[in-house]
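Entry 14. Structure prediction run on the chain below.
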Amino acid sequence: MPFAYAHSASKSILVLGDSLSAEYGLVRGQGWVSLMEKKLADSNPNSTVINASISGETTSGGKTRLPALVNKLKPDIVIIELGGNDALRGLALAASEENFRAMITTAKKANAEVILVGMRVPPNYGKEYTQSFFSLYAKLAKEQKIHLVPFLLEGIAERDDLFQADRIHPIANAHPLILNNVWPQLMPLLTK
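Output returned:
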């Protein structure tokens, strides 16, 4: 029965994110990446998760750090959860787009599957910027033929009770919901 163990294929998953993935304001182990690691321990016990997320990270920082990470770690899957800090700083969308494209190319050259995680910014940045920023993720996912989590905070963003006092970072109770948004894109890659 050679296919009996297909579900437990060994996979290494690199998460390159910002504070939303780096457990900002949470007790260690409460963030969605830690919860993903625990869930994988049950379903794919041979899988490993490397959380290379840093609070405040931008796409520029991710682009700079990713080559060394993939060379050292040789991940099977790279989850890119960045962009929010670019938008909050009002950085040019063209620069963010080029940084994303560079990260996707770096991961693909390392034979990793890529999951791009979409983000939205508050409407006070203007309708055009807000919409252009959000649509950038879908555009890149389609163009690069990669997996897309449309919006990391789907079902969470509109609920004040799921955020820390800063209204930017979700509380621990929101992180299982965040994982539920990511999991459908990750699951098919675990058996490839």
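Residues 1-8 have pLDDT under 50 and may be disordered.
Filed with the rest of this week's runs.
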